[in-house]
Amino acid sequence: MPILVGRALNWAITATAGSGFLLFGYDQGVMSGLLTGTAFTKTFPEIDTTNGGNGSESLQGTVVAIYEIGCFFGAIICMLVGERLGRRKCIAIGCVVLSLGAVLQAAAFGIPQMIVGRIVAGIGNGMNTSTIPVWHSELMKASSRGKGLCIELAINILGVMLSYWVDYGMSYVDSDAQFRFPLALQIAFALATLLGILLLPESPRWLIAHDRQDEARQILWAVQPDADLVDINDARLMQSMAEIQSAIDEEREAAAGGSFKVLLKDEGQRFRYRTLLGIGGQFMQQISGINLITYYAPVIFQKSVGLSHNISLLLAGFNGVAYFFSSLIPIWIIDRLGRRKLMLFAAAGQCACMAILAGTVSNGSKAAGIVAVVMLFLFNFFFAVGLLAIPWLLPAEYAPLAIRTRAAALATASNWIFTFLVVEITPVSIGNIQWRTYIYFSVFNFCFLPLIYFFYPETRNLSLEHIDRLFTGDKVLLHWKESMGDGTGPDVDITVEDSHAVLKE
Fold it and tell me: Taking Cα atoms as reference points, which of 74, 83, 132, 47 lies closest to residue 424?
């Protein structure tokens, strides 16, 4: 029996998922303000690219980006063994591994140890980021799944913002604590996530898929908002379990034994198409250019716009604040407007921001520099509204349960390999082709518009089981048809009416 039930349990699940993504955001942003710090450049002169430094831009890119290689392998590990271990065990192991990596980074006195620490921490984060959205989605109702994932990703940006301000505050410290404390702080967030996941339930869909129906029924009951007023053996709740089981049976039959080759099948349930949609969403998120800003905001302000070190760190901090407040917007609109509209809005806005950024940076005047700063802030706004949360949500929504763990892990792996590409080339690109760097990101964002419009189905307010029906007809449906029902399916919502528990779809 779960320790918490009802709304308290739902908030605890969202808070724990958010804690894991706060850690993810903090990890993304923490290195950006350390790279130009005096203590950091003194300890690691090989990657000092500030004015007067003779460090290697390519080595700096590698030290920062090697974290993504660790994340990539963490996601691959989950793809291989995640379904066997379960959602909770994968997240718990990820937190422990990430903590070990944070210790190695905080204690580093040379580039080799820093690289090893970043790889180890990355493996842990890769396991977390490929599993947490799936675990969270499978415990949420259809009507609040998008909102819940947006809260999770807003907390992720809170982590980015926090890292910028921790870096800024520690920049006034003259000792090695200037960079060691920010790196060690990761451990606190990892332990908070670990504690939460140890106290919270497993995904009921994973339990049903592994023939643990009694546990699954308890959890499906416990996550209802008014669980204490509902009979655990309610007939409609049992019907919901039967619907989940039926969907699992159909998916297993289509999966033909569940081998990895099933990810390439495109008959019936269209596993390949659905897997590619998840991978494509993560590809678009990273190639948009967001990590150009997240990982190197102070460097861009300093080298591209020509601001001082102190002002660059301060602006990066305020950019993080604006980014966080922008990330709150989709919490209220994602389940009203849907995924497609927000993604199209983001891609169009990001395309314009990068084009204007290229023009202003090439101009080089003070007025153009102000416009460039505004474009960096605006880019984060568009990204936060439409491409921050949705690419993490789609792999869990599009992929059926039979391949959900592997498809989500593969999508996450693609996220990290493309993040590695962007983070690796950014210092070299800014150093060599300068303002032209922003042109190709503008072109990439323009190309996303037809991809989203023609290939990505709308999943707003649909249950995970009903999303299957968008992919099982003669052609993929981009929108749910009213003639197919209301689409809420077994993501049940139990309320109280006349002192009796009523289950409504």
Answer: 47
CA 261 → CA 13, 249, 397, 471, distances in Å? 33, 18, 20, 19
Residue 498 is predicted with a pLDDT of 34
Q: Of 392, 199, 404, 426, which Cα lies nearest the Cα of 293?
A: 426
CA distances from 345 to 211, 348, 351, 384, 387 (A): 43, 5, 10, 11, 9
Nearest-angstrom CA–CA distance, 39 and 24:
24
User: Does 497 reside within a domain?
Assistant: no
> Would you say 30 and 186 are in contact if contact means Cβ atoms under 8 Å apart?
yes
DSSP 202: P
Express each pLDDT in 157-167 by its tens digit. Answer: 899 889 988 98
What is the maximum span of the chain, computed from C-alpha positions, in angstroms?
75
Structural domain includes residue 312: yes
Between CA 131 and CA 7 the distance in angstroms is 23
Measure Cα distances from 455 to 195, 430, 448, 452 in Å.
Answer: 40, 33, 11, 6
Nearest to 215 by CA among 223, 207, 227: 207
Q: pTM to 2 decimals?
A: 0.78
Number of independent structural domains in the chain: 1
Instruction: List, as one string, the DSSP characters of 156-179.
Output: HHHHHHHHHHHHHHHTT--STHHH
Asked if the structure places residue 478 within a domain, the reply is no
Determine the pLDDT at residue 504. Answer: 35
Inside any domain, residue 447? yes
Q: How many Å apart are CA 35 and CA 40, to the nearest integer?
A: 7
- Confidence class of residue 489 from pLDDT cuts 50, 70 and 90? low
Give kind and range of the element (H or E) at residue 504: strand 500-504
At residue 392, what is the residue type? W
Q: For residue 80, what are the domain limits?
A: 6-469
pLDDT higher than threshold 90 for residue 346: yes
The continuous run of DSSP H or E covering 241 comes out as helix 235-255
CATH classification of the domain holding 57? 1.20.1250.20
Based on the number of CB atoms within 10 Å of its own CB, is 214 exposed (0-12), middle (13-18) or buried (19 or more)? exposed
Residue with tokens 């139990």: 494
pLDDT in tens, 374-408: 888 999 999 999 998 899 888 888 988 778 878 88
Would you state the structure tokens that stand for residue 232, as one six-digit string? 């655990």
